[in-house]
Amino acid sequence: MNQYKLGTSVRFLNSYTQPGGALVNPPSVAVTAHSPSGESYSVPVVNDSTGVYHADFQIPTTETAGIWIARWVATGGIPSQDNLVEEQFQVVPLGF
Question: CB neighbours (10 Å) of residue 48?
């Protein structure tokens, strides 16, 4: 699991494919970062090329250290199992 300090930036990466493996842009892609304290943060998504995306998130220094979840949600044009992608990452206090 990747580890980051409070106040640093995290880059999330994801891609979407059609059955058969061709990259595709879903009509809608969103990323939300969820903290252990229960807060949710909408993260801007960048479409780098067909089917390839990244999202940069600045972890607030006022937030809670612990295990966070980044959740990608896409709609339409891709297999349903790819509509929701989650990844965990660990955030540690600034003193570490």
Answer: 10
The sheet that has 52-58: what strands, in order across it?
A: 9-15, 52-58, 45-49
Could you tell me if 16 and 82 are in contact, meaning their C-beta atoms sit under 8 angstroms apart? yes
Q: Which domain holds residue 58?
A: 3-92
| 75 token code pair | 């709609």
* 20: CB partners within 8 A, 6+ apart: none
The count of domains in the chain is: 1
Q: What is the pLDDT of residue 96?
A: 52
Domain CATH number, residue 56: 2.60.40.10
Two tokens, residue 94: 């600034």
Contact indicator for 93, 38 with CB cutoff of 8 Å: no
Q: What is the pLDDT of residues 2-58, one digit of tens each?
A: 999 999 999 999 998 888 888 989 999 999 999 999 999 999 999 999 999 999 999
